[in-house]
Design a protein that fits this description.
The complex is a heterodimer of chains A (308) and B (539). By secondary structure, chain A is of the alpha/beta class. Chain A contains eleven helices and 13 strands. In chain A, the strands form three sheets. In chain A, strands 5-6-7-3-8-9 form a six-stranded mixed sheet, sandwiched between helices. In chain A, strands 11-12-10-13 form a four-stranded antiparallel sheet, covered by helices on one side. In chain A, strand 8 and strand 9 form a beta hairpin. Chain B is an all-alpha fold. Chain B folds into two domains: 273 residues, no CATH class; 249 residues. Chain B is 74% helix and 1% strand. Chain B contains 23 helices and two strands. In chain B, strands 1-2 form a two-stranded antiparallel sheet. The longest helix of chain B is centred in the C-terminal third of the chain and has 35 residues. Chain B starts with a helix and ends in a 7-residue tail after the last helix. The chains are: A alpha/beta (308), B mainly alpha (539). At the A-B interface, helix 2, helix 3 and helix 5 of A face helix 1, helix 7, helix 13 and helix 17 of B. The complex binds adenosine-5'-diphosphate (ADP) and magnesium ion (MG). Magnesium ion binds next to helix 1 of chain A.
Chain lengths: 308, 539
């Protein structure tokens, strides 16, 4: 059993909204698996199905070899969940909320819990009602990451954290995988996934549209070359593997598919290279390719929603 | 100020359904009350008899208010005001808390506050929304009452009295929202103030004297300490005291100014009482499903036990006086004997009292069970059920605490009532009668609890409206069922109809066992449905 999570054709609708539309997701054990997609793509719905909080309309999900709906309670002893927008009991202190959630899960590592409270600079004596969004998030993160379990389901866990705390979060996740844990990390922050993940799956409108190791996915993307040559390039956009080119006199900017990089560089070399810089492919571009002009709409959705 | 108007529009949009329901329901109740008086008191002689009874009967002085003469309008507004005024006050207080303290709690205010919005704008918007809603209720009541043809001047005075109580409680809730750090605390404080206002008014009307002619009551001074008392003292269709509108408006203005000043002295998200800090580690008692549930449920239980014990003591201690009064008043006696013909006055009084307190105490059961829905709806249940806590286990812990709490709440009213009566009269067999009358209410309360659990499992969105409606229906059927001449099959729907009127009637186990069985069956249905359904998660 080397798959921590496996889903086949998972579907889920809320009334007329189709949230998941045949989702196939595989997370290998020991991985940090990035689960990327814009708001509304179905990330949280997937994770809630994996937790047995929602019931799938169709398809099959297996988590740590168990059925997340039928075996919820036994399964939950072996995993930890950090929601993206956690609601806490206003009259409990942060420390009480952490201890309560840990105790209800069953596995508490007191030393680890104290260490994390320290590292996230959380004041555990404050009442949850007086915490800011970022501090509420820290409570959820400490309560989840202090667990000594096999699998961590993290749903946009860093929303509201400042950059310093995000760095702490990344360190902690690395420690978890070093100790053999598996992490499913949903995010729409690509830099976070790039920094942490061994593999990513990209979800769009309830389906996985791309999945694989980061290296393999990078392969699908285009490298950007900035070159200055002795002889101006002659209509490089016609070369095989070049997807876009801007030439102004002897400098040029080319977008090159990963498979044709070698050939393109040979052709450039023939023009006498003065300088050459290449920008590595980023997930940003990968994203852009899958979402294209939908991205403009996506930016609109990221505005804080005032009405609910 | 532009920001305030934007927030007002936003709040009205969020509340468009709930406020309309409140307005329509309250106006409808006003209409129904007048209609029932129109049909019940056909002749002048009927009206005079009814007014004389209300003026002289201490129970009506406590639960209705000061009798104001024999006109249909005056009698129905006097009788109806308690419900209309209390409902409007609840609507107003909840609206203010919802748009001020509650938004801070959910972090919604953080988002709004980071936009260009004055520090006091959310509070101002909350108050504006609540006051506007009260005016809408007042106009609705006036139109509904006037439409029955009993005259327009009194109808507008009545509308003013209802809206005015709402205004003052909006102000009280605005202050409470600054003082308390949680919306539960602020709502609780407003409800407590409402309870105190009711008690002060009841004492003032009870200790007042009957005016010459015997058809109206002059209330004593405690009535004038209570906003509900002011509303009663408007006396529509009798005195039409318009100047009380100034009292309402002035008090409201003062309270709102106090709230604004307090808001200026505190940070977003904090309150003024309640330690801002707690323990860094949880005490061992908290660290289990039951420990968590107890922590969430204990506050409301303690408040209800205290309130019901006080009510029990107050009513228990006047038992002898009341029994003597009934013995000498044939009309009153005839009315009470509809419970159990030929029973002794004291037994009738105790059965009648506990039939009322039994339904009232079930208010605890409903409120405490709805905490489950709040936990789910506000997103606190999700992280809990993602741990090794099973759904059945979580539900069981709440149901057990609330079930035991129900017995405690009802039992304490009977026990303290019995002790108060016994200590004053030395008649300890009579004292045990009150405890028995309280105990037989428990299975009926649990049957209603079963219904709430069933709806929570099957139709979670409807839990709160169905639960409160069921309780209100049980109250109306129990108190007015005979007067309104409701058909027996309808009365039989209320579990409280089946409770034997102990001690006026002999004890009968069978109906109580049936009620227990209904509670179990409904509860089991709710459990099964809750284990099969999607969790409702906000956002
Ligand atoms: N409880 C719910 N009721 C109705 N619609 C929902 C519910 N939960 C999610 N949705 C809808 O399902 C879709 C996927 O949502 P979600 O899984 O939360 O996306 P993500 O986490 O990727 O932002 C969205 O269109 C959302 O509006
Ligand atoms: Mg989400």
């Amino acid at each position: 059993m080397d798959q921590a999570i496996e889903t086949r054709g998972l579907t889920k609708s809320f009334g007329r909204t189709v949230a998941l539309d045949g989702l196939d997701l595989v997370v290998e054990r020991g991985q940090v698996h990035g689960f990327l997609g814009p708001n509304g793509a179905g990330k949280s719905t997937t994770i809630r199905l994996l937790l047995g909080l929602l019931r799938a309309d169709g398809g099959k999900a297996t988590v740590l070899g168990a059925d997340p709906w039928r075996d919820a309670v036994t399964l939950h002893r072996r995993l930890a969940y950090v929601p993206g927008d956690v609601a806490l009991w206003p009259t409990l202190s942060g420390g009480e909320a952490i201890d309560l959630l840990c105790a209800l899960r069953g596995s508490v590592d007191r030393a680890r819990r104290d260490e994390l409270v320290d590292r996230f600079a959380l004041d555990p004596t404050k009442r949850c009602s007086s915490y800011s969004k970022g501090n509420r998030q820290k409570v959820a993160i400490v309560a989840g990451l202090a667990a000594d379990v096999e699998l961590f389901l993290l749903d946009e866990p860093t929303s509201g954290l400042d950059p310093l705390m995000e760095a702490v979060f990344r360190d902690v996740v690395r420690e978890i995988t070093a100790a053999g844990g598996t992490v499913l990390l949903s995010s729409h922050i690509l830099a976070e996934a790039e920094a942490l993940c061994d593999a990513v799956s990209i979800i769009r409108a309830g389906r996985i549209v791309e999945t694989g190791s980061l290296a393999a996915l990078r392969h699908l993307t285009r490298t950007t070359l900035h070159v200055t040559t002795r002889v101006p390039l002659d209509r490089p956009e016609a070369w095989p593997g070049v997807f876009g080119a801007e030439v102004s006199d002897r400098t040029a900017r080319l977008e090159v598919g990963a498979d044709d990089l070698g050939g393109v560089i040979e052709r450039i070399a023939a023009h006498g290279v003065v300088t050459l810089t290449s920008a590595p492919p980023t997930l940003e571009e990968l994203f852009l390719r899958h979402y294209g002009d939908a991205l403009a709409r996506l930016d609109g959705e990221r505005e804080p929603a005032v009405t609910r | 100020m532009t920001a305030t108007w934007r927030l007002v529009r936003l709040a009205l949009r969020r509340d468009r359904i709930v406020l309309v329901v409140w307005v329509v329901a309250i106006a409808g109740l006003a209409w129904g009350t007048v209609q029932s008086y129109v049909s019940l008191t056909q002749t002048e002689a009927d009206r005079i008899a009814a007014a004389a009874l209300v003026a002289s009967n201490p129970l009506s002085r406590v639960f209705d208010g000061p009798a104001s003469g024999p006109s249909v309008g005056a009698m129905s507004m006097n009788d109806g005001y308690k419900i209309l005024g209390i409902l409007t006050a609840l609507m107003a207080a909840q609206a203010v808390v919802r748009h001020s303290r509650r938004d801070e709690e959910t972090g919604r205010a953080e988002l709004v506050g980071s936009a260009v919005v004055g520090r006091r704008a959310p509070l101002a918007a909350a108050v504006v929304v609540a006051l506007t809603a009260c005016v809408a209720v007042g106009v609705g009541v006036a139109l509904a009452v006037g439409a029955t043809g009993v005259g327009w001047t009194g109808a507008w005075a009545g509308g003013m009295a209802v809206a005015g109580a709402g205004w003052v409680f909006a102000g009280i809730a605005a202050v409470a929202s600054q003082v308390f750090g949680t919306s539960r605390g602020a709502n609780g404080a407003a409800a407590g103030a409402l309870g105190a206002a009711f008690v002060l008014r009841a004492i003032g009307d009870l200790t007042g004297h009957v005016a010459p002619g015997g058809l109206s009551v002059v209330s004593a001074w405690p009535s004038w300490l209570s906003p509900l008392g002011w509303g009663q003292q408007v006396r529509p269709y009798f005195l039409d005291r318009w100047w009380i509108a100034g009292l309402f408006a002035g008090t409201t203005l003062l309270l709102v100014l106090v709230a604004a000043a307090l808001r200026g002295r505190r940070d977003l998200g904090t309150g003024m009482v309640g330690a801002p800090h707690g323990p860094a580690r949880a005490p061992a008692g908290l660290l289990s499903t039951t420990g968590m549930t107890w922590r969430l449920q204990r506050g409301v239980l303690l408040v209800w036990v205290a309130a019901m014990a006080t009510m029990g003591a107050a009513f228990g201690s006047v038992g002898r006086t009341f029994a003597d009064y009934v013995a000498g008043n044939d009309a009153m006696r005839a009315m009470l004997e509809t419970i159990a013909p030929g029973a002794a006055p004291l037994d009738l009084y105790q059965a009648f009292l506990m039939a009322f307190l039994g339904v009232a105490g079930t208010g605890y059961t409903v409120q405490a069970l709805l905490r489950m829905r709040a936990e789910e709806q506000e997103g606190r249940l999700e992280p809990v059920l993602a741990t090794a806590v099973g759904r059945a286990c979580w539900l069981t812990s709440h149901v057990l605490v609330v079930g035991a709490g129900t017995a405690l709440v009802l039992g304490s009213s009977g026990l303290v009532g019995g002790l108060a009566y016994g200590a004053l009269t030395d008649d300890w067999s009579g004292a045990s009668g009150i405890l028995g009358a309280a105990a037989v209410q428990v299975p009926a309360a649990l049957a209603l609890a079963g219904l709430v659990v069933a709806v929570f499992g099957l139709l979670p969105r409807w839990t709160s409206p169905v639960a409160w409606f069921a309780l209100a229906a049980a109250l109306v059927m129990g108190q007015l069922g005979e007067i309104l001449e409701l058909p027996q099959w309808l009365l039989d729907v209320s579990p409280f109809t089946h409770v034997p009127a102990v001690p006026a009637e002999p004890f009968a186990a069978a109906p109580l066992l049936w009620l227990g069985a209904a509670a179990l069956a409904l509860g089991a249905l709710g459990f099964a449905a809750f284990r099969r359904r999607d969790l409702a998660i906000p956002g």
